[in-house]
Amino acid sequence: MQVIELRDGFGIDKLQLTERPDPEPGPGQVLLKMRAACLNYRDLLMVRGHYNPRQPLPLIPLSDGVGVVEACGPGVRGLVQGQRVCPIFAQGWLDGPPDRSLGRSTLGGPLDGTLCEQMLVDADSVVPVPDFLSDVEAATLPCAAVTAWNALVDQGGLTAGQSVLIQGSGGVSVFALQFARLLGARIIATSSSDAKLERLRAMGAVETINYKSQPEWGELVRKLGGVDLVVEVGGAGTLAQSLRAVRPGGRIALIGVLSGAAQPLNILPILMTGVRIQGIFVGSKAVFVRMMRAIEHHRLRPVVDAIHPFHTAPQALESLATGQHFGKICLRH
Questions:
Q1: Would you kindly state where each structural domain of the chain is located, as residue ranges?
Q2: What confidence tens digit (pLDDT) does each residue in 155-179 have?
Q3: Looking at the domain 156-279, which fold is it?
Q4: pTM beyond 0.85, yes or no
Q5: Non-local CB neighbours of 123 within 8 Å, separated by 6+ positions
């Protein structure tokens, strides 16, 4: 089978199209013929060697994908040949809170990921995909969508009539907007692009703020009444503004590090207003299944910005690095 992998070091220019032996499923495993894959910012960090410089090579990158069950190993029940499924991000995290071992079981590093023609995974670690979703739409779900759902619903407890702030127009943020609208929440969105803000308004944001022209956007959100929940994808560089934007007793779902992972921070606002900051590490299979039920019931369609052929994965990662996308960037096999 063909794979795209890092062999001789880190960097987008180090990705190579190579051959590996066709895998065969063992007990409790399924063999997937991959249909599509999807990019996340984590994948870019992993390929560049920034996420884990000690990651053993060779490595097949990417965490998100969808495939068709090609063969089942002994003991597999509940899955059939030809069924479309998504592998979950943290293989083996079926339910409950995360533990320290999960970092050793994630696809796209340290485990081989979805940038391959065929893939072996445990049968317990896949989620069936509804028929109305295309392959590339389904491929967007395991990381960004599950993260957004976990941040809003399982951990965030967002309910109808509450308010949420989303940052930017990447995969997690766009999914968060879609889920928040589905839940009946009031949505405020930020971006550096007026064109993207217009698209976010069309999708349901009632207030939008250009954070380039309004660098103190947290204070502006406070004047608008504040929000119950902030979907914080920026990290250390935007957390201080998020603390201004959130209402007393509100929640900040800390997800990304787009603006950095370390910076001095005044923690008094957290103490004085009872704000809860919750780290979000994607989610378990149980979270994925609950989210998928909602997606199927409401027939929610993921937003796909661009679709690239499988062999152009390096160019797709370069496109992701520019930050110009709206929603998700995918690869079709």
A1: 2-142+301-332, 156-279
A2: 999 999 999 999 999 999 999 999 9
A3: Rossmann fold (3.40.50)
A4: yes
A5: 28, 29, 30, 72, 73, 76, 77, 78, 79
